[in-house]
Amino acid sequence: MKDFDHLMSVWQAQPKQDQLSVDEVLKQVKKGIRSITSQLYWGVVAMIAMLALTFFILFFFVFQSWLTYVGIIIMLVTMLLYAVMIIRNYRILNKRDATINPTEYLQDLKEYQKKRAKIVGWFYYLYVLLISLGLSLYFVEVLKGATIYYKIAVYGLTIIWIFFLTFYYKKRIFKNEEEKLNLIIEKLERLQGQFE
User: Fold this and answer.
1) Burial class (CB in 10 A: 0-12, 13-18, 19+), 174
2) Any idea what the Cα angle at residue 140 is, between residues 139 and 145, rounded to 5°?
3) What residue segments make up the domains of the chain, in order of their start?
4) pLDDT 10s digits, 36-48
5) Distance between CA atoms of 6 and 131, rounded to whole angstroms?
6) Contacts of 89 (CB under 8 A, 6+ apart)
7) Tens-digit pLDDT profile for residues 126-145
8) Cβ–Cβ under 8 Å, residues 175 and 16
9) Cα gap 89→111, rounded to integer Å
10) To which H or E segment does residue 62 belong?
11) Higher pLDDT residue, 176 or 49?
């Protein structure tokens, strides 16, 4: 019985979790979401610029090989799909206000996080694979007259760039977004728990 009393005193001596200020949490949530949507916005801007450049190359340059056109079209379709995905994510995060209904907003964020995790897992690798295939087909004709050293340099730098984006940049960017989302979701859950 003595151990039970000791255990109860230790349990009661535990510091209680601080009550979260609703205004402060909602400010932090808005700031975190604004940070993520800002990243997505600039991703959309960059993707639109790349799509415009690819359209320009496709329609205003003349190539001899049909493989070059296939490579450009593969890149164009892949970038278009990625742009649509980024715009969709931007709209999902930007469409609601956390202050109107935090419970629904929390459920939307959880749903977004699940979908984002699935897409990040397989779509990013598919995106890199298709862009690489498109670039390879494009470079066949573009580098036809180049020296072997120039070809090796271009292909080597392209491969290094793709590996950098795939194995370093992707992890860093998506991990940062995941941490922000987890923090936002945790704060909203704690806030929701205070009112139950």
Assistant:
1) middle
2) 95
3) 22-194
4) 888 888 988 999 9
5) 64
6) 40, 112, 116
7) 888 899 899 888 888 888 88
8) no
9) 11
10) none
11) 49
